[in-house]
Records
---
Amino acid sequence: MRSHSVLLILSCCFLASCGDKAINNQASSPELPASSNPNTGSVSLPVLAETPAIAGSGCPAGSAQVELQPQSASIKLRFNDLVIGTGQDQNGNITCNLAIPVTVPNGYQVSLIPLHFTGNLSGNGLTIELRRAYFFAGSIGASQVSSLALPTDSQFSISDSVNPEDTLQWSNCGQDTNIRVNLRLRIKGGEGQANLKISSTDKAEPTLFKLNYRVCQ
């Protein structure tokens, strides 16, 4: 009986030690990176913080339809045409300003968002000037100016772009910001009317404005 008891005790000790080893050999869960979302495990990327603000004599409140897209990485914007003219009750100098709030996590930068312009001129020797400035809130952007003096009933198209080598066209690293665009359209001479459409540079979906970002450089 004593030998059986000793064997039983040794067997129990052996099983207990095996159970301890099984528990101790389990790998601990790796910690999520500091820039990850603890709920989803996905890396945090720049996102549109809220609906853009649009104002100006050429695009008053309610004149543009704004729709944030899923994942908050893009927006759909549908602007009413900007119209200027020399006729009675027409304005020959109008503005349209856009402010897009963006949340930028550590390690990332966002770029300015260029626009595409199309339109038509009608009248007698009409000349208009399109002036626009792209910049981040708190800074000053250089103005781009296009002077349009086309034959009667002519159409025009202008597409701006971002130079990835230009540091001024990228936000500060990891700093929340407002992407700004200020537009001014005015008549410089002649008589008639001009209609201007504002869209994104995406030819496939001109109402879609995508947030462009990169790892800090």
---
Amino acid sequence: MDDISIVVIGFIGIDGTKILLEKKKENLLSRFSLNFLQEKIYNLDKIEKVTKNFDFINFKKNKFLFKDVNDERTIYEIKKGGFLSSLWMAAESVKSGLEYELFKVPILQITIEVAEFFNINPYRLYSNNAYIVFTNDKKELFEKFYNEYGEYLDLFPIMEIGKLKKIKSRRRIDSDAMAFLTKDYKDEIDKVIEKYTKVK
């Protein structure tokens, strides 16, 4: 189990960021200029055009073949609850502990700034077209991904962030204080737009 890498594909929190930029623009204008917000929405649209063409089903079943964990196909789309919720569910599905570095997770500066403005956790923010992958052949996975999506890496990155472990705990290892991953399916966007994800 210790040789299985945890890889994140795509920027997390993109969908939640775009929703907040569009639906809470009036609030954000107290800190950011209109031109700045419009530019960021335009940039997120560019990312969305690339990532929505990512063939999740084909990727999962055919293109990127690697040994499954506990006979489970191990790619998970990050959705409601954001990265941290999805990482918990992914680890739970293969009954594994893990160690990860949060600061290696691909995230845009605008996502961090918007989350900071609303005092929410960007790593628990609604996501779309971002994925967690467990693989025992990181080299092959990266090579095949680069071959197909290499020209879009600035819009659609890939990053190893940790390892599955033969331990019970699921812990963050790039924090000064001991930090453990916990089961929490709540999405931070619901704190800003009430019950937003409940209608998804």
